[in-house]
Amino acid sequence: MKTILRIDWQVKDIVEGFIYNEFEGKGLYGLNGKLVIQPEYQRNYIYADGKKDVAVIDSLLKGYPLGLIYFNKNGDLYEVLDGQQRITSIGRFTTGRFPILDQNGMQQYFSALPKEEQNKILDTPLTIYICEGEESEIKQWFKTINIQEIPLNQQELYNAIYSGPFITKAKEVFSNSTNSNLQKWSAYISGNVLRQEYLEAALNWVSKGKIEEYMSKHRRDDNINELETYFNSVIDWVSNIFEDVDASMRVLNWGELYEKYHNNSYSSNDISRRVRELQGDYFVKNKKGIYEYVLSGENPEYRKNLDIRIFDEPMKKAKYKIQTEEAEKNNISNCPLCALGGSNKIWKLDEMDADHVTAWSKGGATDIDNCQMLCKTHNRAKGNK
Ligand SMILES: [Zn+2]
């Protein structure tokens, strides 16, 4: 790989003919059409938050260095390897797409800045390394230099490594902030579409967690039929079963639940009513656990995922005191089950555990009236039933 350093370009050269695509969220071209700002393997523009983009402009106005920028030379064209977020921020500012705040806290767009401040930005010299090499070399190296800006997350890195027709098509659907299905999908998926988190979910579901293997295998495919069909099956399944949506649904792996339960038949009405009940149940601490619990037909194995509220220490102590005083008076054990067997052993507090007289699953509350202290042996025996 050949590398040369260029210090003769200024900001005004780079933003000449700058084109930004609002729909794709991408800075497209600079250097009068000769610079491709967001090549296929680059992620989308994510600085447009009124902070990171503004910080880039502030540092130019203060004369701070912008940091190294890397281009890849590809025939007559250049592609930005590292620096696209900074370049897109500058291009968007000089084309009037966002304001900065002046000393008086007033919003100022580029065109309203004093001429000398405009020139200060446009005349800033840049330090640019130009690389020329094989695609595989460049990508490998891109992985290494990706330290300047916000680091790539795992999925963005996979997109770079396995770039090709498959991922290009997949991004058109799953990384597209103008996709009209996003609203519906966002009920079941958390994260940022531009940071590839919807794509990641889609790939995770269809590949049963083996994203990298799947991307490598399908890299040269010219369609994404399987990926799309599977994703839609999962979304249709979950949205048909559950009438309501709530925030805890977004952290679940719906692909995994689909695999396990999609052959069962459910009454959407009954299951949705049960979910609402459990959502409103004070004793259910882990609301995320509700969905698999109801899909499994309320299998006790999944009850532990609900993290049912347990008796706290003050309640246990209070109940222990009542039971022990009563037992001493009657000369019987303070464990009611030991007492039934004729024992008069008085257990210490730390030798006993709290038990729901009526189990939570049968409607028992976690309050002092439904609490009894049992010796550890009896508590374990009861818990196993
Ligand atoms: Zn006992």
Question: Would you kindly provide a written description of the structure presented here, covering whatever features stand out?
Answer:
With 385 residues, the protein is an alpha+beta fold. It has helices at 11-14, 52-61, 84-94, 115-122, 135-145, 154-161, 165-174, 182-185, 197-206, 211-218, 225-241, 254-261, 268-279, 290-295, 313-330, 336-340, 376-383, and strands spanning 2-6, 19-21, 26-30, 35-36, 69-74, 77-82, 100-101, 107-108, 128-132, 352-356, 371-375. The protein has a seven-stranded mixed beta sheet with strand order 1-9-5-6-4-3-2. A two-stranded antiparallel ribbon has the order 7-8. Strand 5 and strand 6 form a beta hairpin. Helix 2 crosses helix 3 and helix 9 (197-206) crosses helix 11.
Protein topology:
Blueprint: E1 2-6, H1 11-14, E2 19-21, E3 26-30, E4 35-36, H2 52-61, E5 69-74, E6 77-82, H3 84-94, E7 100-101, E8 107-108, H4 115-122, E9 128-132, H5 135-145, H6 154-161, H7 165-174, H8 182-185, H9 197-206, H10 211-218, H11 225-241, H12 254-261, H13 268-279, H14 290-295, H15 313-330, H16 336-340, E10 352-356, E11 371-375, H17 376-383
Parallel strand pairs: 4-6, 5-9
Antiparallel strand pairs: 1-9, 2-3, 3-4, 5-6, 7-8, 10-11
Helix pairs in contact: 2-3, 9-11
The protein binds zinc ion.
The molecules bound to the chains, other than polymers, are: zinc ion
Number of H/I helices: 17
Q: Give the C-alpha Rg.
A: 31 Å
Percent helix range: 40-55%
On the 0 to 100 scale, the average pLDDT is 89
Distance between the ends? 69 Å
